[in-house]
Design a protein that fits this description.
By secondary structure, the chain is of the alpha+beta class. It has 14 helices and 12 strands. α1 packs antiparallel against α2, α9 packs parallel to α14 and α11 packs antiparallel against α14. Bound molecules: adenosine-5'-diphosphate. The site of adenosine-5'-diphosphate (ADP) has 22 residues, from α11 and α14.
Amino acid sequence: MNPQLLFWIPAVLRLLLVMIGGAVIGAFFGPVAGLTLAFTAVTALAFLQLYYLNRLDNWLDNPDSEKIPDGFGSWTGVFARLYKMRRDDERNQMELTEWLARFRQAMSQLPDGVALMDDVLFLEWCNPVAQAHLGLDLERDKGMRVTNLVRHPAFMDYIILGRYDEPLTLTLRGRKLIVHIIPFENRRQILVTHDATESERIDKMRRDFIANASHELRTPLTVINGFLEIAASQPNLDLPTRQSHIKLMSEQGQRMQHLVEDMLTLSRLESADLPLHSEKVNIKALLDQIQREAAALSGGRHVFSLTVAGPDIKGNTEELRSAFTNLVTNAIRYTPAAGKIDLAWTETDDGAQFSVRDSGIGISPKHIGRLTERFYRVDKSRSRETQGTGLGLAIVKHVLLRHHGKLEIESVAEQGSTFIAKFPKSAIYYQSGQLDN
Ligand code: ADP
């Protein structure tokens, strides 16, 4: 039925009832009694309306769906509808609060910083990453102008010029940040910050590596080209000179070959696509062979000792052979004749370790932390004279990383060094142990 009729019919009926009642009483007890009754009833009805109006007024001061009053007459419908509206409102608000909490949770999980600002750059909200990147504190800085909080000339220029279609790169608090401002909804702006420190570091490493590798390859190539030019321009050189030139050229050729081999090994080890193929490594057999090869390389100039007192491990034999050989070869190359080189495989509280101790030239403490960087050498000419590529310890570090191990270096200049390859307990091979691939 039409809601207007639903409202008016009962109201008119109530008034009619009062009038009929008054008329009936008037007929029996006289007009004064009838009018008095009608007046009293209309006044009572009016008070009833005022009473519910007052209750509505009170409820509006503190609108809680649970406390909504019960009604009488038309008020029943009014209160029922108010109750429904209030419940819908509460539900919407709850959904909105939940959604906002989820949104904030999602924003706080983002790896990038996000800050919301109004059209004049007053901070409204930001996630924890933005706080860390820009040095903000949401509680303290909310409502403040972002240009007063991030005081960096490049950032100021970026805001003044307003060229937001291009991101801004700036160094802030020791981090390289890529900052982007995105205007939205007319009166709001989002500021997004991305930490590019790590990718910049990797980029720099790659650039340095290419520069170093090219430099390393250029030297032997220049030597070989020089001798080839001599050979072309002076075809009648005597035999001993020609032979010495050929010997020098083949040495440089070998140097290039070592360098390329080491570069390939390193790039293979660094490749994330290459899983470690694990097997049982027979440590005794491996170290016996390495010691035999070392003795041959030393040509009797050094005194060797080998102790194998630890368990076998799980790992890749060829990778470990390459790492251990690099350590032993270095000991030979950096230890003068008659020096001592002790190789030891032992079990430790934390797992097992291979140590190579030499009585060689040693390393001063300032170099020790950088020895595993590619192409880092304490003495370039000594490294080259002994066929060094500058990549040996970088290879060792990567092999150990792939075996969840680490390299420790102890050294005293002029007295000798100890290089220790440490493996965790989980690498030890037990007879019943499962192999991890
Ligand atoms: P390289 O081919 O130059 O030996 P490595 O990466 O193997 O390259 O070693 C880096 C540098 O560490 C070497 O150039 C050398 O200065 C130093 N070094 C490595 N092993 C020893 C050692 N046993 N004694 C002294 N210095 C060493």
